[in-house]
Automatic annotation (TrEMBL):
SMART domains: HTH_XRE. It comes from the Bacteria. This is Helix-turn-helix domain protein. Transmembrane segments: none annotated. Residues 10-64 form the HTH cro/C1-type domain. PANTHER family: HTH-TYPE TRANSCRIPTIONAL REGULATOR XRE (PTHR46558:SF11), TRACRIPTIONAL REGULATORY PROTEIN-RELATED-RELATED (PTHR46558). The keyword DNA-binding applies. One of its GO terms (molecular function) is DNA binding. Keywords: DNA-binding.
Length: 194
């Protein structure tokens, strides 16, 4: 751990949050001289202070320890770059339109890698007026089910959460050409081009 890099990061994040050294120190029940020492690279925060420091500076502990935020390259938010993440513990669904570091239930999440839908994981589509009617014969038990269905174009995403023991019979507005994704809790993420 490079104390100088950590100190520079703490200083820049403190200023970004609009805090003086004294305000940060008071919030953590430490002296402002301690904060000054960190920012000059003459020492690093004690491990017991990192969770509170992380909350106050609005950055994760890992970034504080590395002393670097490594911002992502600006991609313009193209929805076709959407990545899906699902927590294996609680089933929480998250998306990003570029590289992201996400965690849930204390675990780092990896972006799901979509596979082209096969015969056992294909959604049936029918056009009804200005909507797509979507259904599937995929089982929807508590042990094996489709967790969500999402349609993604270059500028829009429409995501519908699904639940075990509910049949899939839903309508999505027709939004041009794109990819229809669905996530099976046993087999992963699949896509179909529409």
């Amino acid at each position: 751990m490079d104390c100088e890099k950590v100190g520079e990061l703490i200083r820049s994040l403190r200023i970004e949050c609009g805090l003086t050294q004294k305000q940060l120190a008071d919030a953590m029940n430490i002296s402002d001289k301690t904060v000054s020492k960190w920012e000059r690279g003459l020492g690093c925060p004690d491990i017991s202070l990192l969770p509170e420091l992380s909350i106050l500076l609005k950055v994760n502990i890992e970034k504080i320890l590395s002393g670097d935020l490594n911002p992502n390259e600006l991609l313009g938010g193209n929805m076709r770059m959407t990545q899906f993440y699902v927590c294996s513990e609680c089933g929480n669904i998250m998306t990003s339109t570029g590289n992201a570091e996400l965690s849930c239930c204390g675990r780092k999440l990896e972006a799901l890698v979509p596979e082209k839908a096969n015969e056992t994981h294909v959604l049936q589509l029918e056009t009804i007026e200005d909507e797509w009617y979507i259904e599937t014969s995929h089982e929807m038990t508590k042990a094996h089910y489709i967790s969500f269905i999402a349609f993604v174009t270059g500028e829009k995403m429409y995501l519908v959460k699904q639940y075990p023991e509910w049949g899939i019979h839903l309508r999505l507005p027709k939004m041009g050409h794109g990819k229809l994704y669905h996530y099976c809790n046993q087999h992963g993420l699949f896509y179909q081009i529409i």
